[in-house]
Amino acid sequence: MFEYITGSVEFVGPEYIVLDHNGIGYQLLTPNPYMFRKSEQQIRVYTYQYVREDILALYGFQSREERALFMKLISVSGIGPKGALAILAAGQTKQVVQAVEQEDEKFLVKFPGVGKKTARQMILDLKGKLNDLVPDALPDLFSAPDAFEKSERVSVELDEALEALKALGYAEREIARVVPDLIKEALSTDQYIKKALQLLLNGKR
Prior knowledge:
This protein folds into 3 domains: 4-61, CATH 2.40.50.140; 64-133, DNA polymerase, domain 1; 154-201. The chain is 40% helix and 20% strand. The protein has 8 helices and 5 strands. It has helices at residues 64-74, 81-89, 93-101, 105-108, 116-126, 154-168, 172-182, 189-201; strands spanning 4-12, 16-21, 24-29, 39-52, 55-61. A 5-stranded antiparallel sheet has the order 3-2-1-4-5, with helices on one face. Helix 1 (64-74) crosses helix 2 (81-89), helix 6 (154-168) crosses helix 8 (189-201) and helix 7 (172-182) packs across helix 8. The radius of gyration is 17 Å and the shape is globular. This is Holliday junction branch migration complex subunit RuvA.
């Protein structure tokens, strides 16, 4: 298994990024691809290789802790890689840990693909096992975004964010409910995704 790959980001899409390392492009599925920027700058992405009979995929994370949480999540019956990515994309690590510890099923079922049965399984499997992942090593994806000047790119960035939400498993009807709040501001794709996830997890569904 690859521990990490260092390279430059050549492509950013709704589901994955392409990291160029010495002329080889690695397709890395990530929780929020738009956290990355296409650039020649060298970055390090921690990886996890997922292998099943019909699947061979490489997942990328910004930290070892983020990867560790992903691995714990996919160990739960009923949560696959896509579901785990959706939970990580929300950036609510502390709230996820708190929900598991306090057996708060109502919060957990807000994630796409997580029903009551899966939420209960998360609690049974992970309670008491996530405290080491709470420290500040994981970035707070809901920090207040810096305002920047509106531009013609806004519609493109909003469209990219909506596609990323669909890729995470959110239904179009759920996404449609938060769009009115999103179009009020001019944000980057990454910031639109953060704001949308915040609205979805806070009950605007």
